[in-house]
Amino acid sequence: MRRGLMVLAGGVGERMGRPMPKQFILLAGKPIIAHVLDRVRDLPDITRIIVCPPEHVSLTEELLAHRNLADRFTCVVGGATRQESVYNGLSYFEGYDSVVIHEAVRPFVTTAEFQALIDDPAENAIYGSSIPFTVLVGHEYVEQTLDRSSLVNVQLPQKFDVARLRAAHEAARAEGRVFTEDASMLHHYGQGRVRILPGTANNIKITQPVDLVLGEAIYSEYVLGGASD
């Protein structure tokens, strides 16, 4: 089986309020994306790419060279949106069977969790966790209540059959529909069942300043505490 891994590194950090893309902000002394690359650098039998906007390719390649990873990852130019970036990345995996997608700003997934996702017999699988708070639908006023016991906090990495994911993307492009991640797209277009593996509370996405504070705390407890593999 031919497997690929796609690291999405297209964020510009608007919510972070920094002059540089958020994946290059330092967390525990090194760029956030470097934490991710260190987790997946030695996964066996998998082709690795990083998808990023044209203006970030050189910076990403410099980081790879500096960390002696240039022979492990290929930079691929993404699109204007996350969805377009995944679609562009899929073109690199023509002829592949399976692809794992992760985000450059989710630094606390372990190598073992990546491997467990790859080894799971389901062809489409994601990590997800329960939601420990109340969720309502509404704008100015409450419009609907939701049963949180049936809700899932969607996490990455995610694994998909390449042909099925490409078919879902083609359908979404034809309809002009936008999805915030790929499991919901695959489900919407009936391209197969998606298995949910148990995620963890540590698997946060660094999007705003408070997440950096939380990230430093997670790193101190979770990584330095010996759970980094």
Write a compact overview of the structure shown:
The protein has 229 residues and is α/β, with parallel strands linked by helices. It is built from seven helices and eleven strands.
Your description of this structure?
It is a single chain. The chain is of the alpha/beta class and 229 residues long. The chain has a single domain, classed as Spore Coat Polysaccharide Biosynthesis Protein SpsA, Chain A. It is built from seven helices and eleven strands. The chain has a seven-stranded mixed sheet, sandwiched between helices. Strands 2-3 form a two-stranded antiparallel ribbon. The protein has a two-stranded antiparallel sheet with strand order 8-9. The model has no long low-confidence stretch (mean pLDDT 93).
